[in-house]
Structure prediction request, 714 residues.
Amino acid sequence: MTEDSGVQVASEPRPGRQGTVGRRFRRGLTGVLWALAGMLLTVLMWELVKLVGTIVSLPFTTSDQAMPHVWTMVQGFGQPEVRGSDTTVLQAVVSAAAYSLLVALGGFVIGVGVGLLLAIVMQRFAFMERGLLPFVIASQTVPLIALAPLITGIGNRISIGPIQWNTTYSVMFIAAYLAFFPMSVGALRGLQAPTATSLELMRSYAANPRQVLWKLRFPASLPYLVPAMKVSAAAAVVGTVVAEISTGVRGGIGRLIIEYARETTSQPAKVYVAVFGAIALGLVAAGLVTALDVYLTRNLPKESTA
Amino acid sequence: MRGIARSPWVRLATLATVGAMALSACTSSDSGTAESSAAPEPSLFASSAAASAMAEESAMATECTELTPVTLQLQWVVQAQFGGYYAAKDKGFYENQCLDVTILEGGVDIVPQTVLAQGGADFAISWVPKALASREQGAGIVNVAQVFQRSGTLQVSFADKGITSAADFKGKKIGNWGFGNEYEVFAAISKAGLDPSADVELFQQQFDMQALLNGEIDAAEAMTYNEYAQVLEAINPDTGALYQPEDFNVVNYNDEGVAMYQDAIWASEERLADPAYQDITQRFVQASLMGWVYCRDNAQECADIITANGSKLGASHQLWMMNEVNKLVWPSPAGVGVIDQALWDQTVNVALNTKNLEGATIITAAPPAEAFTNQYAEAANAALQAEGLNTTGDDFAPIEVTLNEGGN
Prediction:
């Protein structure tokens, strides 16, 4: 935590700095422990279901083919990706996840930027809100599997001078397409959050629209922006992985999932390794946004919002 | 929600904004990356007749000043199924035809013939029935080279089920993939005098063979070059060793007389009116077919080329696939890539008359004669033969491939 320059409206008396840090650390540690406990529980449940499956007949198969043991999956990390290659599956998954993270990040930044811009425009001009919002909402009803091949198809034809569109941009575009929506809707709500009293105060100062935006609406929208950004980040990751699967774009975790899924018959555990990679990717993305959240709201009262 | 914009001006402004957004998003591109490919190395063209052919072609292509960029859309990610095209690229056959070919890989939702029809690629690889269905729905595409001369679809079952022909499907649980991949199965059932909806139990299987190995279904649809190999790469829990071919019965749809043409090179019908595109098509078909000739004679090297191009499949699986695909291409009695009218008619016939469970057929009317042309493939055969290459593969002998666990 940095210096508190903003308003402090904590309901309880503010404890000493040392106490805050210590308590935050302890709370963080407890959180990690709970998360680990949750993972352990999931693993236990998985194995329990397999065990039960051997005793009574369940409506789905629990064989090692359909549900590999967790330790088989973990072993899969250490195996070479293809025989004779120096890369292990783990290395392949980590590099693919890192690649997808970068693409998702690009999509996230573009999406959040576009979403914010749209929100500002829609907040400023009521007719824009009425005209654009339906399109914004309709944009999300287009199924991704219909959109992805279309975008890569259009992308293949784009070249500006020596610059040639490549399929990775298509994936980034799809990530951005999913990411902009939560942002634009959330930001719009946030920008409209200031009370009439605050707005009248600004008017009495003869503030122009830009000043109102910067000095009142933006700060007031932060509690809305952060949750919107979290949803956007998740959407960008999902968009990236799904678009990679959908269009077979190389390099990312989605491509790895379809590659490994092909070996399901003889190596059923392998695809789970790639799926773990996708999960890790999602967690890292969520972690990054949380870090951003801590930074952005460092001066705001710690209250649960939105 | 409040009513949408009332005045026309507002509507216009909105439209303009949306349009601008779309435009700006589409054009914000960056530097492109092409598929990696090693520059051709003439010293590597060892072994076959290709060596002499190459020398001749290099001389022929002296007037080539700038390579023509060409894109080829595949149905799926890089694997030996597309060996000939990757070989033609890596061995410089395309370059010798003054072409700079970019191979676009497929994905789960990529439909190559649609990409071609929409202008997203110059050529596409597609199964004939699926392409004919797209053609009927308005995709202007023409089959310019029928690379696979036979169907690679099988119905695989454990030997103890006693399923050796489609007639044995009666009363059995028969897996099929759906999504338009099921028509050979249905045609075989009907041809054997069975009613698909009453005499057999149909099961839509996943694209892996677990349902067969788990005993959920009696017979599973499989491609010779992929799923069948997957079965043979899995451990038989009874023996602790790999499953052996003797453990299974295989119904081959070629033998059932319902086989449909599969992988073919498709070109844009509209653009074929343009002499420049005709010329590109001729050169592309010739170099591609040369790649297939090369892979026939150098299966191991082609499998290695595929792996070098980024396939994650295991080495033995890759080589198995290359070998099985070679069996689908060779021999080509009328010449590689040339369509046999009888098998074309059989494909059309099955596509026209076989109903799936929903009562749908692949196409509702026979395609016009313009749906395919042998012009390019025949010219390519003549040119390749003139270079001393055997383009019928009458002496073709497949290699023996030993599969390892997991295809490694």
About this structure: The two ends of chain B are 59 Å apart (CA to CA). Confidence is low (pLDDT under 50) at residues 1-59 of chain B.
